[in-house]
Amino acid sequence: MLTFTALTCALAVVAFTARRVTGRIRELAEVRAAARALRVFTDAVGRDLSVGARPVEAAGHGVAALAEAPEGEGRTGGAVVDRLRFRVGLVRLGADPAATDRGHRADGADAPDVTDQWFRLWAVADRHGLALGRLSDRMIEDLDARLTHLGHTSSALAGARLTETILLLLPVGALGLGQSMGLSPFGFLTGNPLGVLLLLVGVVLACAGVLWAESLTVTVLGGVGRRAGPAGLAAARVLDTFAESLVAGLPVADAWAAATETGDRDRDRGGDGDGDRDLARVAALLSLGAGPAAWEPLRRDPAYGPVARQAAGQTRSGARLAGGVRAQAARLRREAADRSLAASERVLVVVAAPLTLCFLPAFILVGLVPLVVGFAGI
Known about the structure:
transmembrane; transmembrane helix; membrane
């Protein structure tokens, strides 16, 4: 009874670990597929807008182009096509682009989040008279950066998982060697109470090592799920909209208010919403006529600080300010790419701890101890 219970617990731990890892692999694949599909759509829309097409017609052509492209096929690609077609159809009927996210969700992936960002840009461009084509071009840059980050993530995870797989196969190889020599290590692990205990502890250690390595890898890479991405892109999108609003002739207060409408829950600052509150606080102070003092909440911000300090010094020169805002957005994207590459290169370093503290003891308990017992029996 004890043996059966221990083996059942070991199988349950293995099943749980396998489910977590395969789920993360599947999620990463869906996120990459959704990002590719949305890039095809945004690129097609931008081309139509550059030749003077109306936004709703350009969006319709973009959906058709995605549906015909390889990126629009499969479960995730088809879900993105359906999602976009539904939202564009609502806009044709007179709905506000930003309000079309109600009542329909794409299956899987993080397509709704990225799709919402593009439709939010559309709504802001319509409301404030901005150039949607240029905003779409900037979003393409964000999608390219996200795809690059996901590529680094996939490569880093593949390398870490290959190392884990090799280490997990070492005990199996040792047991197979012992079995071929007639030492019967499998019989010891499944028939002897001490062997069953060693097997259970070894399996738990190995699975803990897998989950620990996955957790460390994901932390270093900045996440691999629906909200993952290179830090800095959310702020770059806000600054791009701010610059386009200034170029369109909006006053600084109105331009910043428009930019804050394109922001999302700012994961660059830990996902606690403080970043969005600071943006809204500056917008409110500018609308009240606070002048240079309105930028005080963002003066020390690593992403918005350079723009806030520049804006505080030239509140009446929006054209010059637009150039500095664009330069800061470009710098944030470069830094995001550098951090993504550096993180992918650190993965094999951070997994050293679980390799040493989990996989090595598991190999000793499950692979070497049964062989030693078998030799002692001889």
